[in-house]
Design brief:
The chain is an all-alpha fold. It is 68% helix and 0% strand. Helix 8 packs parallel to helix 11, helix 10 packs across helix 11 and helix 13 packs antiparallel against helix 14. Its main location: endoplasmic reticulum.
Length: 310
């Protein structure tokens, strides 16, 4: 028998080297083993810690100091007659006066700052997720990165539109839970848009938009959304970095509404200040919790691998 007859048929190189989409490659993360937490590319502890620290610090600065801008205060400062103040105008700390003077402006300013910060943060998370998802040869990964960078602006626009659309059901939910129906509409809208940005924008920018399409990639995206936000099944640090803050923002907003019902007649109880700041605080604390838990798991897995190697 000739050597040509003995030679086994090989696959078409053009088909075997065809890069898969990140959504298809992310199927590996659906069955991710705990040992992968120690992967340096999968969990960049130093870079992740630094970005979380900067992100949460800028969120706190946005909530506390951005509404205190001199230009905004002078532009919207209402004229008050000190002789007509009632018992509801209680003395408050000068630091709080700029935040409570115009709740609608405060809500709008914080919402704008949160949108800008989430765009930056989502870019980091998206790059982190693709670093883990992209596998194969260097050429395949280079081609896929080029394609992803090309589609980045389109994905960003879709995520922003999805976030704005998501603020509509959030607004309705806030009204059903007790927000004013006919009054304070701008305040409620900016709170809903802030919540939608904190909860939905990053997953939409990283994973893609959920849809009812039967295509494989759309099905995987939809299942990922259901697994994270319906089943609360989190299996990777990247998913934890998105899911924990989203739930923390919703919980913080709900807890922040409690002081509004108290009969204290304080200026800072105006709708929706306590809920808005509660959402930001909940997001920050949950981001720190996600970092802490992922770091502990990473160190534990590294210790187990070291023990087994010895």
């Amino acid at each position: 028998m000739s050597t040509a007859a003995k030679r086994k048929p090989t696959k078409n190189p053009s088909k075997s080297s065809k890069p898969k989409s990140p959504a298809e490659k992310s199927t590996a993360s659906l069955t991710e083993a705990p040992s992968s937490f120690g992967d340096a590319n999968f969990f960049p502890f130093g870079r992740y810690t630094g970005v979380v620290g900067v992100h949460t610090s800028l969120l706190a600065f946005t909530a506390l100091f951005l509404p205190r801008s001199t230009f905004l205060l002078e532009l919207t400062r209402p004229e008050r007659d000190e002789t007509k103040l009632t018992s509801r105008d209680r003395p408050q700390h000068p630091f709080l006066e700029a935040l409570t003077l115009n709740p609608a402006l405060t809500s709008a300013t914080i919402c704008a700052g949160v949108i800008l910060l989430q765009i930056w943060w989502s870019g980091f998370v998206r790059g982190w997720w693709f670093e883990y998802s992209l596998k194969g040869t260097e050429d395949d990964m280079r081609l896929e990165r080029r394609k992803l960078e090309k589609d980045k602006l389109m994905q960003l626009a879709r995520a922003l539109l999805f976030t704005v659309a998501g603020s509509v059901p959030v607004h309705i939910l806030l009204v059903l839970l007790g927000a004013p129906l006919t009054s304070h509409v701008p305040q409620t809208f900016f709170l809903a848009l802030t919540l939608s940005t904190l909860m939905f924008f990053t997953p939409a920018f990283v994973f893609g938009l959920p849809s009812l399409s039967s295509k494989t990639e759309s099905l995987l995206i939809r299942l990922t959304w259901v697994r994270l936000f319906s089943e609360f099944s989190i299996r990777t640090p990247v998913e934890r970095a998105m899911a924990y803050p989203a739930f923390g923002a919703a919980l913080g907003c709900w807890i922040g509404a409690i002081p509004i019902a108290l009969d204290w007649d304080r200026p800072w109880q105006a709708w929706p200040l306590t809920s808005l700041f509660g959402a930001v605080v909940g997001y920050i604390l949950s981001s720190m919790a996600a970092l802490t838990i992922s770091a502990i798991k990473s160190l534990a897995d590294e210790h187990l691998r070291t023990t087994k190697a010895d």
